[in-house]
Amino acid sequence: MVSGDPRAVVSAAPSYRLAYRVCRSNPPVLFDFFSHFRRGIKVRVAIPRAIDLSKGVSLWETEAQARDLALRFPHTGYYIAAVAVPSNVRQERNPGSGHLSVWAEPEEMLEWVRGVVRV
């Protein structure tokens, strides 16, 4: 197609949702983006829905929510990574809690990190 042709199809870049992940390392490493399933943490009730959710990586809608988690459960980490999650990636928001599950590979998620702050 000729440049400037009004009939040309331009694929739009995906939009992003900024979310926050509590991490143990700065800069984050692959392990920081492992799901519970990948870390070998068993679900309380082995039903398909719980197993599926355990394969998602937990993020938070606000930095304050991530900070609250890190302060309540220090073993989760001392850093908060801002992560630009593409809209075309499977994700599920839990309304009211600010929790977001994202199904992606740790290598991908590391590339989405936009910044890290200490708790």
- Helix and strand run: EHHEHEEEHE
- Beta-strand level of the residues, as a percent range? 25-35%
Question: What's the gyration radius in Å?
Answer: 17 Å
The class by helix and strand makeup works out as: alpha+beta
Spatial strand sequence of the major β-sheet = 1-3-6
Uncertain regions spanning at least 5 consecutive residues = none
Distance between the termini: 51 Å
Give the overall shape: globular
Major beta sheet, specifics? 3 strands, antiparallel
Q: Helix count?
A: 4
Mean pLDDT, all residues: 91
Strand elements, count: 6
- Considering DSSP H and I runs of 4 or more, what fraction of the residues is helical? 10-25%
Would you write up a description of this structure?
The protein has 119 residues and is an alpha+beta fold. It is built from four helices and six strands; from the N terminus they run E-H-H-E-H-E-E-E-H-E. The protein has helices spanning 36-39, 48-54, 63-72, 106-112; strands at residues 16-23, 57-60, 79-86, 91-94, 99-102, 113-118.
List the helices and strands and how they pair.
Blueprint: E1 16-23, H1 36-39, H2 48-54, E2 57-60, H3 63-72, E3 79-86, E4 91-94, E5 99-102, H4 106-112, E6 113-118
Antiparallel strand pairs: 1-3, 2-5, 3-6, 4-5
Give the key terms.
three-stranded antiparallel sheet; alpha+beta; 24% helix; 4 helices; 119 residues
